[in-house]
Amino acid sequence: MPWLVPNIRSLERIAPSQQTGGELLRYWVESASYIMALDPENNPLSFPVLKYYNQSPSLIHALQSISAGHQYFFEPGKLRRCFEERLLSIQHVRKELDTQTNDPSLAFLTVFVLGLSSYWIALPADDPVLLHHAQAHLQGGRALIDTMLAIPVPQFSPQMLFAFGAYLYWDMACSFVIAPADLKAIDGSDFSFAVEALARMYHPILGYSAEITYVLAKVGRYCRTVEDTEQRDTSLEEELENQLRSIKPTQISAELGLLEEAYRCHGLINIYAIYRRGRVSTASPEAAPSHSTEEQSMADLPAREPSDSWELDETGLAFLEKGFYNAFDEDMAKQTLKWLDYLPLGDYQPLMLPSDEHHSSSESLLSDGDCDTSTETISDDDLQSTIRKLAIQAVHALTQVPESHPSINLHGIPLLTAGSELLAADVEERKLVTKRFRALYSFNHMTANLTALDLLQEVWAIRDLGGATSWLKVMRSKGWHLMLG
Known about the structure:
Elements: H1 8-12, H2 21-30, H3 57-70, H4 80-99, H5 104-120, H6 128-132, H7 135-149, H8 158-174, H9 189-198, H10 210-229, H11 234-246, H12 254-278, H13 306-309, H14 318-322, H15 330-336, H16 380-399, H17 412-420, H18 427-444, H19 448-464, H20 471-478
Pfam families: Fungal_trans_2 (PF11951)
GO biological process, one term: positive regulation of transcription by RNA polymerase II
Subcellular location: Nucleus
């Protein structure tokens, strides 16, 4: 894969790192791994991966590659060691896949880490080829996921469920970036049942948001299709809107509930922006892209009897039947989750939400009263008002979470969508968005956060002059592939 290796002449100008692999691995488990999970204390990609030091050299080199870049904020002039470790990881994972000596879920972790980091090691404006070809890792990851999906649901192992959740997040985060033709569909029944299983549990990357992440992956595909083809499918729009409006944020954790609410606003804003765009030009039904009849909300999935699907066996899937917070047996959990050593946040203390200083008379940020109006029947002004209200709602939901909370690592995607819909009058909200993106850069060291700020400044300038645009349109016009996950 020549596109994964930087130009040799460029490498020769970069000073080599003097750190050993052991030092890079220690930096990973103690610092850099925080960017890969919602809770540092429940992070299967931190200390638990050390047990695979000899079993999966490709994973170890991939993690060391991220460490080598993360400690220098992925600064282009200091990535020689990052690329060296990355090349070693690719060489090893090829051998591991050829010999098929490892569990596919373990090989998936390497591909997952390499795929995400493809976006972290180059600036969108400076290296579009590298970012564009990051889709190859996504396709390779999906091939491994399909291998696991071929296994009957009752035999899903905990490591497979972790891989499913990781892929689901990865797919959602890339759905706006990669052309739909280059993304494999996720609406098959096998994938739906995997999501159903994830919806019953806490996942270190998704938290409790498997269902909304699944819907948003389809929203991203559709929005990118409309952007590329100017063709709409109004029935699919209505279906996606109804799915988003029906999802209720978790009440188990205040921070994760606020995060889910912001992501729901993110999805609705993008759907409503298409409505707004469609007031000008709507494609004929014959030209609209088709969508599978298998697409359905999680609530419509066929019921599965516990005696048929969730019997206790060697794979430890009985915890899925009960759920992590319903009659949960911690002793059983410690046995079933020993592969990744993560447990649910059973004794988690919810965040006490501060009052809304800027909109003290507004409804609770976790209510869905803002989303009950059918946007197909309201006026243009009311539609714009609805979008703006959702944007403000999302910004305030996200910024109520302290900057020190690790869940802010997942704030970038909804923050960009909501921020792009703020008007000149929303001075305070624009300041909050800017401040949070800078906090994100400080937390995860990813230059994409600064690129997102540049993108927002351009969108705001156009809007302040009375123009109509979106962050996706501006990003596409620049040829960028901005992935904030």
